[in-house]
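Complex 550.
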Amino acid sequence: MSTHANHPWWKSSVVYQIYPRSFQDSNGDGIGDIPGIISRLDYLQNLGVDIIWLSPCYASPNDDNGYDISDYRAIHPEFGTMDDFDALLEALHNRRMKLVMDLVVNHSSDEHAWFEESCQSNDNPKRDWYIWRPAAADGGPPNNWKSFFGGSAWKHDPATDEYFLHLFTQKQPDLNWENPVVREAVYDIMRFWLDKGVDGFRMDVISLISKKPGLPDAENPYDVMNAYANGPRLHEFLQEMNREVIQHYDIVTIGETPGITTENAHLYVGTDRDELNMAFQFDLMSLDHGEGKFDVSSWEPHDLFDIFIRWDKALSEKGWNNIFLGNHDFPRPVSRFADDGQYREESAKMLAIFMLSMRGTPTIYQGEEIGTPNTPFHSIDEHRDIETLNQYRIHVDNGGDPAAFLNAANHAARDHARTPVSWDAGAGAGFTEGEPWIKLNPQYEQINVAAAEEDPNSVLHFYRKLLALRKAHQVFSFGDFDVLDAGHDKVLAYRRNYRDESIEVWLNFSGETVACNVGGGESLIGNYEAGAAGELRAWEGVIFNKRITQ
Ligand code: TEU
Ligand code: CA
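Predicted structure with 1-O-alpha-D-glucopyranosyl-D-fructose bound:
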């Protein structure tokens, strides 16, 4: 294995995200859990990933599936015990793998003891831990801010006759980061997990923690990605967090950052900033959004290419990119960006080549490695996500057509990513022996891990080969990224160079054979047998060896 002198470990790592509710159930209650994860560690190790990012597994009333935390130091009993957690961490470390936890501290649950105390009276010691304001002059909410999930961002508390701020659901009150005692409490939580040995944090909506002084009306309150992000004290808080906690551990920090742009991103992840290591961009999320995400608009492949090209330019020299095509908030990449029908396998492999041949740290979301497609939802009752349920109600209350909403949700809903991993063709898809908490992907009898293991040409085996290739050659993680003149607007081509290594990547984002400038040469990996120069077949992806020592 090559060494990576002068590069921190997380730059040459590949992350795999686990959404614990939907990964593997071990006790038949239909809900994924930590013992279930432990039972699949051989699979993850054989896949070739290095870091597991675990979505929240803390105590939570599950209004937003764990992104509403009622005790930051406890494991949700549905997921197991603290002993189970410790066993998971140890089992990962024994495999020389790492564990990144989700840190959700823009808000807590309204069932957190801090908030319960904060509600007790207008002058209790924890009142100032959250953001309380009296009604506006007209008796309504204090300002025009909107929740990310629809409706006002303020909820009235009759007992103390004030409103509290919640940028997400009503059960996710925003913490008041202006209060230094709150910040210290957050740092303590971080130390608690780091002292156990966890290897870093993915920080939920960390771009929202600093609110604009005086909480003025937003110019466009519906532009939630921008209106509430990048507050004036944000970077002061992140630098303080770095000084107080991060710099004392050898960890990775990944910001989830709505409102980040290629212009302001270096403020978060610039090597000279002492804040975070990487950040999730949101351009990819809004790629197909019209008036919001349930208004699906069309896009062209070059819109997608531009996003990755711009982000590489913005960060790769003086920061670092996180490369991803999906997560628990997105529909499935093969359905969204490629073809989940006739060319499902080819196009899923092409997307894998794309993601795993870029500069940056790639993050694979569970199920992507078998090319899992979206799940058709036939009625609102099949949906579980609070975002979809809220927006549906708002849409219908405003006289909108329910069928139109459901159609949009079949493209955009977060539940596509949250249907369980399909492990085998048995009842419960090998995910559960009970009744799953959300419907299974209806194609699980054909598209599942066991079937993919049997088929040497499967998407899964392709991921394994690509991950091994990426690990063997530093050019994948660190090489320059030079976009080539592909000669066709649905083809992306780039050259990667690092020291004495050089590769060329060609990707056809269309279901047609297209004429383009592809040359030829020795292919390191591709989703078809070697082809003719001058053309790429439907969804073809290929990496040429321009100069590599094997
Ligand atoms: O998501 C942040 C975020 O910006 C989301 O609101 C995103 O815009 C939304 O999913 C679009 O549909 C994080 C978590 O990833 C998400 O699961 C949580 O619901 C949210 O924070 C609140 O904690
Ligand atoms: Ca379970």
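The longest strand covers residues 491-498.
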